[in-house]
Specification:
Elements lengths: L3 E2 L9 E6 L23 E3 H6 L8 E4 L5 E6 L3 E7 L5 E6 L1 H6 L1 H8 L7 E5 L9 E2 L1 H8 L9 E3 L5 E3 L1 H11 L4 E4 L23 E7 L1
Parallel strand pairs: 3-4, 8-12
Antiparallel strand pairs: 1-2, 2-13, 4-7, 5-13, 6-7, 6-8, 9-11, 10-11
């Protein structure tokens, strides 16, 4: 079992990215990694502000532009989405649960970057898959009220609720923001207990860390 999941994307040579697994030793995280206080919102902050803050900032995405910058998020079913400029000039990491996704955390991250959207790469790390993510009408409505096409990411189940496809929703929203080079999204945290933490499977679980850095 691999200790790290490394994105298969055409990132520049100075960009390093990965997601931890249950097998990842603690020392595998890069030096200088800092974390936000994630609140399922849509705020984006520069990593140097997070680094200088005496208390963890409430935000759900961070950006970096200087050599040595590390952007990171912690997840256990929500989407970790990593971004980089095609030329390696800047990076970002976003935590996108359904609330943050509906609130526009991915769009806000794209807007916070100086790179034009069509020159960005995005990678979606391990998250809960549609067969394992049951939601109510309020979740579906939160998405389709702003984009009727989002209805295609929801499938009705026998319990009168919905199976939501977070990866599909993220891809739709990234495309609308102008980001079309999107990779990853094939891992299910809930379904692979050997490799991943999952809050829906075990509320007392740990967290995966998805990070991206500029060498």
């Amino acid at each position: 079992m691999s200790a790290l999941i490394v994105p298969d994307w055409p990132a520049a040579d100075n960009v390093v990215a990965a997601t931890t697994t249950r097998a990842t030793p603690g020392q595998a995280l890069p030096p200088g990694v800092v974390f936000m206080s994630q609140v399922h919102g849509a705020d984006v902050v520069p990593v140097d502000i997070v680094r200088r803050s005496e208390a963890a900032l409430e935000a759900d995405a961070m950006t970096g532009r200087r050599a040595g910058d590390v952007c990171a998020v912690r997840t256990a079913d929500c989407l970790p989405v990593l971004f980089c400029a095609r030329d390696g000039s800047e990076i970002a990491a976003a935590h996108a649960g359904w609330r943050g996704l509906a609130a526009g955390v991915l769009e806000n991250t794209v807007r916070a970057l100086e790179t034009r959207p069509e020159q960005l790469l995005a990678w979606i790390g391990p998250a809960i898959s549609q067969p394992n993510f049951e939601v109510g009408d309020e979740v579906r409505q939160a998405f389709i009220s702003g984009d009727p096409a989002a209805s295609g990411a929801f499938v009705a189940n026998a319990r009168g609720r919905w199976q939501a496809d977070l990866v599909a929703l993220a891809r739709q929203r990234l495309a609308r923001a102008g980001v079309h080079d999107v990779y990853g999204g094939q891992w299910c945290t809930f379904g692979d207990a050997e490799r991943f933490h999952s809050y829906r499977r075990d509320p007392d679980c740990g967290r995966l860390v998805s990070f991206i850095l500029l060498k």
